[in-house]
Every structure is written in C-alpha cells, then in structure tokens.
C-alpha cells in the first residue's frame, strides 16, 4: 500500500475522512519517474497538506507499506493492511480469519481494543 492512498480512502462504514494509518512494516521501492503531491491529506506526515510548508513526496513514493492497519476516528473500526493491500470491507464482508491471523502475528504491537474485537468476533 502506498502512503498516498490515504489521500482518498474513507471508512466504508461511516465514510469518515481522513483515516489514521499505523505502519508496522514498510519497505523501500523504486520511485516512479513522475511524482505528484497529495491533494488533501499527507499520511507520511500525518496531517492535512495545507498545514505543511514542505512535504517529502519523493521519500513517500519510495516507500511501500507491507503491514499495518487503518483506523477510523469516526466509528472506531480498524482495517488490516496485509501483504501491501488494505482490507477495507464493510463488517458483513470482512474475513474474520484474516483479522485473527493479523492479530496473532502483530498482537504485541496492537492496541488492546483491537485484540478484544477479534476475540469477541466483532
């Protein structure tokens, strides 16, 4: 997943924007020849583009998020990023086995409420 994807993602349940990104694992990738600044939200710096005098777009384009999670401040839901893909599905379409394996792998780095939500089948 690219950091810049957070510039367009909204919660599939409550439509809240922006979402919080927590990176657990990232890797360096080759930068593309053309680099474009995000329009509204810079996830690399965790804030709105208008609030920064300088963004580091070149660095951002050279990073790939391998694992992490996206969290909604509006409704409190979280969505895992697994193998570079954000798994952002409505509740009724979520893969509970994937959520469980994500929590088992990263449990010590996750907030307690996320661990409990998987244990309780939420």
From TrEMBL:
Return the protein name: Trm112 family protein
Q: Which Pfam families match?
A: Trm112p (PF03966)
What are the top taxonomic ranks of the organism? Archaea, Nitrososphaerota, Candidatus Caldarchaeales, Candidatus Caldarchaeaceae, Candidatus Caldarchaeum
């Amino acid at each position: 997943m690219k950091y810049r994807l957070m510039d367009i993602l909204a919660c599939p349940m409550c439509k809240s924007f922006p979402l919080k990104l927590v990176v657990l694992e990232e890797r360096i990738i080759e930068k593309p020849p053309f680099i474009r600044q995000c329009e509204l939200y810079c996830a690399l710096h965790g804030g709105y583009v208008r609030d920064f005098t300088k963004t580091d777009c070149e660095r951002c384009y050279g990073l790939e998020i391998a694992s992490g999670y996206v969290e909604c401040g509006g409704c409190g839901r979280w969505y895992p990023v697994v193998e570079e893909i954000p798994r952002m599905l409505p509740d009724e379409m979520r893969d509970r086995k994937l959520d469980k394996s994500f929590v088992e792998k990263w449990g010590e780095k996750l907030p307690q409420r996320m661990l409990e939500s998987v244990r309780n089948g939420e």
